Amino acid sequence: MYGKAAICLSFVILFLISCSIYVGTVDLRSYFFPLLQSPQVPRSLCASGPPLRVYMYDLPRKFHVGMMDRRSFEGPAPVTADNLPPWPSNSGIKKQHSVEYWLMASLLYGGNGNEDREAVRVSDPESAEAFFVPFFSSLSFNTHGHNMTDPETEVDRRLQVELLEFLQKSKYYQRSGGRDHVIPMTHPNAFRFLRQELNASILIVVDFGRYPKTMSSLSKDVVAPYVHVVDSFTDDDALDPYESRTTLLFFRGNTVRKDQGKIRIKLAKILSGIDDVHYEKSVATPKNIIMSTEGMRSSKFCLHPAEALEPGYLVNQLRQFPKDRWVEMWKQLKNISHHFEFQYPPKKEDGVNMLWRQVKRKLPRAQLAIHRSRRLKVPDWWQRRR
């Protein structure tokens, strides 16, 4: 019993640390060497210096917004803040991997001069600190076929080939070997045909599940949270939030996924017949997303399916969870939830700005690698001499 509780606690701690790393508020010295922190000078958790100067390549619409719908494909070029099409409201589960859209939109936004921004677009590539590649590789996979034999998949492959040819002709890509280039690949099958060719760049991913260590790692890449599909709960201010949520545990989603959905099928049997537990098979249609939103807002806990499969264990653990501890965690989530919002125009310390902050922190390593590669490069005059 205690062993299982310790395992659950370990997962919670790892989750909170992961969130803190993404938010940019973790300073390991303050955890392990608190005496090194000066009590007279409070450290700002969000200070990050001047905004990152980013040059965004001007790619044809077929590489980005042209995949959103036919009207976007036929729209005026280039894409600007004035003609940027909004993300489609009926995109369903595709929205999960739309980080690429929000990153591009944040660079198109000119701002009003008063807000704090983590990244700004520059028109002169010589003045740029980083280069953004606006290829919607996740949307390309979702739009142009879902398997290797689908004829439409050839469109996705062709776009990857054309983009790689474009980058290889860019003197800025050649200059750094792509190390200071930022490329979103949040869907696990994004850029699947040629992704190894871009393994030196700063990739925006959601996990490393389908990436070999030689291609993607936390040392050079940035992990992005999924863009949430359900609407944000902006008025979650009940006097008694715990008692106002009558459902103990909620899940509504696809029950056939990885490994043929073995875990989710078992959970359906384990959790059936419990009055305050809602476990339902569903697909991401606009109507179902609305129903899922309502269900999540009336629940104390929402299920992550890869948890305990022992009958009764999970529900009993949640019933014993102290109300005051639940309320405290609820308050903490409200304090950091704005860091996980993706919106246009972007707002201070929202999801897209937190990602640019992490990109900024990866660049010193990239610049060091660029410097080393230049030192090791054999000069042209030496090659001619030989």
UniProtKB/TrEMBL annotation:
Q: A cellular component term (GO) from this record?
A: Golgi membrane
One Pfam family assigned to this protein is Exostosin_GT47
Q: How does it sit in the membrane?
A: Single-pass type II membrane protein
On the tree of life, the source organism's domain of life is Eukaryota
Q: Where in the cell is it found?
A: Golgi apparatus membrane
Family statement: Belongs to the glycosyltransferase 47 family.
The name this protein carries in UniProt is Exostosin GT47 domain-containing protein
Name the species this protein comes from: Gossypium raimondii (Peruvian cotton)
Upper taxonomic lineage: Eukaryota, Viridiplantae, Streptophyta, Embryophyta, Tracheophyta
